[in-house]
Queue: 2 jobs
Job 1
Amino acid sequence: MSNFVNQFWASTIDGLTQGAIYALVALGYTLVYGVLRLINFAHSEIFMIGTFATVGVISAAGITSPLAGVGLLLFVLGAGAVAAVVSGGSAVVLERVAYRPLRRRGATQLAALISAIGASLFLQQAVSIWVTSDARTTERVMEKVNLLTIGTGDLRADKLLVFVGAMAMMILLDRLVSGTRFGRAIRATAQNADTATLMGVNIDRVIMITFLIGGAMAGVGGMLYVIFFEVTNFTVGFVLGIKAFTSAVLGGIGNLRGALLGGLLLGLIEEYGASVVGAQWKDVIAFSVLVAVLMFRPTGLLGEALGKARA
Amino acid sequence: MSRTLARRMTAVAAIAVASLGLAACGSDSEGDGGGSGETVKIGFMGDLTGPNKQLGINILDGAKLALADYEKTNPDVKITIVEYDSQGDPKQASGLAPKVIDDGVVGLVGPAFSGETADTGAAWEEAGLPFVSASATRVTLSDNGWKTFHRVLADDGFQGPGVATFMANNGFETVAIIDDASEYGQGLANEVDAKAKELGLTVAVREAVAAEGTTVPNYSSTISKIKGANVDAIFYGGYYAQSGGFVKQLRDGGEDAVFVSGDGSLDGAFIEGGGEAANGAALSCACALINDTATGAAKTFYDAYKAAYNTEPGTYSPEGYDAMTAFINAVKDGKTDRAGILEYLTTVDFEGVSKQIKFEANGNIVGGTILMYQVKDGAIVGIGTTEDAKLS
Amino acid sequence: MSAAKRLRLPSAPWTRAYEAASARWAALPGWARWVGYALILVAALALPSIPGLGDIMAPGSSWERILFYPIAIYVLLALGLNVVVGYAGLLDLGFVAFFAIGAYTNAILGGTYGWGFWTVLPIGIALAMLAGLLLGSPTLRLRGDYLAIVTLGFGEIIRVTANNTEFLGGPRGINQIPRPPSVEGVDALTFSITDSKPYYYLAVAFITVFIVILKRLERSRVGRSWTALREDEDAAELMGVPTLKFKLWAFTVGAAVGGATGVLYASFQTAIRPTDFTFIVSATILAAVVLGGAGHIPGVILGAFLVAWLPELARDLNKYRVLAFGAALVLLMIFRPQGLWPSRLREAELKEGEGGIGRLGGEVGAVVTQEGL
């Protein structure tokens, strides 16, 4: 327990940083689930593609020494945009190839899940075979300077960037879904696709854009991940994807704010838990908490609410 | 990937002459094949495409070089190397074992890792197939009474305590011992842990961090714990695929105690993964790394290796060469079946490129020298044995 | 009307032939069908001994060995998971946990304490069933997708716990698990490291016993309740089927098969470690069930056989194995989502499968299938 007290601030900062990435990836699961009632199992690979896109940008931009100020801002915006486009595009292709034909035939959820697992394996292996099967390390993009020490915890610039970047994306998405005409179409489809169709919503387009947005979020998550860890490989999505999905379920799948809450909470729980019982139990802690929460709140902490107006 | 490919191509070219006309050689019926006198099959088993493939490739390339040297002497009895890629996975290795035995292989270089060796040892023993591992260092492997088992390097029973001694000799009093929760990493870390306590060192943090194959874990919590404990050195038991990332996160987290790791981290990929943070790290190995400062037979080996593969010999390359040479010497002595080669190995005694090759009755190498290396300016340099090495 | 109905192609000649054959099979007198079953059993037992077959089926490895592992082991696991997924329609992504529990039971009792195979077997089954009950009672109330992630988490919890527990051997696992006792003087029942055939015969015996039990269950009240809750859980509940109880039944029966398979597997490998029980095993077995035709035993066996065997055939293309496997899953779900060999009941269910089930019940129903999608 003394570890918990000693490391409290460090754990809090690290937990929120890791949790912010979970939350960004969780958004993709939650959006797709809200609209299609489908666990997009291959979403973790969309994230992985985002990390590789960022690695590509870093080497293409010829970055050899850490950036700062405007240069860093430009890089984050540029790399974020590229990663978002690449990941979002991959997600749209994924939907076209692996899910839409199933939807048209009225296949079962189980069939869709198997297709998703198949697509996930395919994408992983494709990157492993045609890009690299080794870890890909990148140059340092930003100095990991300490901005502020809170107790034992160091608030480092890169951690702050990850957190702030993720929050900004979340707020943007929240505005989009709750405040725009298109957001209404998404919510309408999530509530009742039949009625939405009757009201003139083009559901294929809504679904496509849902995948695009979810993919873009994962891409930005991948970009922040690479800035933070400076390394990626073709299996990077697997564990992270499971954690992100857990976050989504924890908060209430289909609920955007739930994904945020679930992600941050999961990040914190893992760090606090690891400080008490050891890092090797992280996964056990995460899943045990999930089971416990679901036992008492079977639809997650905030419930399923994409269809509801407050979204 | 392309670099590896290019190297493999060169390797193929280097032994092309050797294998001409032999590749299509049919399988030698069942059981103790190879008695035909013309072609002898030596197997190789290890990770060639899995997460730690560099180690497997190093061994195989070393073995191929030994074969190429043998072919230069224009021998009557031809030898071929049959590759079995286990991906370092014990289950795949035990799945391949019957195939190896049926293929009429008369000697095996490998299996590379301890886990796969542990799981397949009984099969080799049953088939009377002598095997010489170039890299399996788990202590208990030699406790099974396998007559067919051999290894050309000292085990973790030497390496673990050696590292602990090294840490004590360098004046470290409080240490953290971390492992990657893998068979290898945890085994080695436990050996270090036991000896460190015996030597009076304080092990302030003892933790495992799940490495999950090749994914990139977040070590934040472990690092906070280490920082809180004010240690002089950190030992990490694990493979290079993760140790580079670990040391980087450690330094970024503001922890500057000396980083020590074992043979699993002794690879260029550790430096690549760790970048600047890898500098100053101390790495132990029962293996001999050979670089351009080598002399004598080692220098000849270095030059030949560089010529064949266009790269420096890696971790376990010399051991792969020596393991293969042991078999080649047996063949030179007219032993071309399993029983004959096995018998020969009990008497083998030659100066290999890594060390003197002579086996004890349980298959362990005679002698137990553990060497220390240090990363300096992005290069791995030898700093002596665990007894006398001093960090600079 | 669903799009699927509109797009339905005229039945191919081989489909008609199959339908005719299965009708004739169903019309046969009982004794004739039993003769048929016996012939299939004999053929299965002969598989490892047919000369030349191994060269065709497993050119890169030992046919006898892959017949037992992975083929027979996958068939057993798929039979177990089929109860959960195929019969009851519950989404289980952590089936490997029960396999692991069986294997570790044998590792501890057999390997560490030296108990015999036949003593350990019922204990392994019992412990797996107990785990099924413990996991099932709190979680089976959950909707399908929550259940999926919880079971996935359970599988990981079991594996990580084994990895972190000294008593369970940690990452090194446990070695020297005893083989099943041999029958003196009978080669086919002499268990050793070099001969995989006895294991295969034992596995065929397991498979036969489980098929008989599962078939009886399928036709009992339990089986009918499973069908009811799979087709429409809410309606079943309304009609007085205690759905939770029967979900638990499915979970426990499936777990029992998984546990038994684990015991058998451990006695074959003689060494197990946590990395044998990763998520990919669960995913592969699930793929086998769905590929073959969930809920249909012959289909499930076919699916498991293909999933286990096809990668062996493509050993030379090692690098592309998993890639091709992934692509095949996607293509199969697009072109034959009911599986290669579905039961007629399931096929009928799928054909009338309007989206409602999936959207409300969340179990194995349809993805959004509204008109016009």
Note: The domain at 2-296 of chain A is CATH 1.10.3470 (ABC transporter involved in vitamin B12 uptake, BtuC).
Job 2
Amino acid sequence: MPAVRIIPCLDVRDGLVVKGVRFTAHREVGDILDLALRYRDGGADELVFYDISASPEGRSVDTTWIYRVARELDIPFCVAGGITSVAAAESVLNAGADKISINTPALSRPELISELARRFGSQCVVVGIDSCERDGDYCVYRDTGTDQTRRESGRLTLEWLAEVQSRGAGEVVLNCMQSDGTRSGYDLRQLSEARRICHVPLIASGGAGRWEDFAAVFSIARVDGALAASVFHEQTLTIAELKGQLVASSLEVRI
Amino acid sequence: MIGVVDTGGANLTSLFAAFERLGARAEMVDSAAGLARSSRVVLPGVGAAGEAMRRLQRAGLANLIAGLRVPVLGICLGMQLLFEQSAEDDSHGLSVLPGRVDALVARGPVTVPHMGWSRLKRRRASPLMKGIDTSEYFYFVHSFVAEDSDLTVASVTHGRSFSAVVQRDNFFGTQFHPERSGRAGSRLLENFLAI
């Protein structure tokens, strides 16, 4: 097995990281490259940039910052947000991203997954799934960027997880919405259920607060990677500390 | 000049940038003349085997690459192209190295693609691995594998063992992406430039 992957997620808007590391009491904005390199040096195994300027207004992703990051960064990174077509994906990959991640566009037009996998190979096609429990079932939500747009997609999470794999997704990020932002731990039950039917790498998202949460999601839900944002941005936990604890928990970690 | 052969895949930015960080000049090469000007040649790693081979044949490069005397480095798919045959698209390879490339099979906890950081098991010496400790991790992302053989310099295990680094004479290959493997990957590329 590869080492478990620790993946900080940075929200990007108009070429800047928002909700990044807290620099001042008022503004949480930083240069993408500075933060990317800081996380790389801190031991991140991979980075995800979520372009929040793109998706809601239907614009495509600006690629100049992707090119800047790709030239300096020597670990893999994925770009999410606003990729609605093969052409948009191509511009992001050509700018130097290793992977692209699609979420709502895949729900709107599932064939997009197959088209991307055929054109670029499954290895760079990640599907993000926003999932929430309702009446005992896990349901997929779409347009989750804002509270106003968020709605049920009408799909069940485990069925959608099977479909995206058969369409050629090379990796799945499962964001468990009920634990997202709570810092009370990953949704181990849901992620364990997903793991049973997920034969491509599975990345956990939503709920990381302490190093124990990471240890649990790797050893119990057996995910390949764990994504987290605020816990790293606010420096309540450094990646070095986290990795030290994971090593002590007998998990294979890249140091 | 390092000639990076155009195999048709997207995303060569990271590869060019990795050489640039080492102070080396790399250029995309898509003709016999370009190949002849290259003091080192890289076969990059993104795309599918069938399409990459068709492109090399159309450009008249397939036989020329196989006959090169300068150091050649195949990365990921580029390494797989060095073999005789690939199960991907059931395509022929450049036949620089004996053997075939097979699909990796997902089973139990073994996911496909093999994606992430893995450590290597050293099998024999190669100038490509000079100064690289066995504790180092490299970044893999692939669904096809070349069996371990006499040419295997280092192997990796994902479900089963297969070739991570191969070498025959001036032909080198890595199943992982050195340009995305942090400092260890950078050292490997530096070693390639010193060969």
Note: The CA atoms of residues 36 and 89 of chain B lie 29 Å apart.
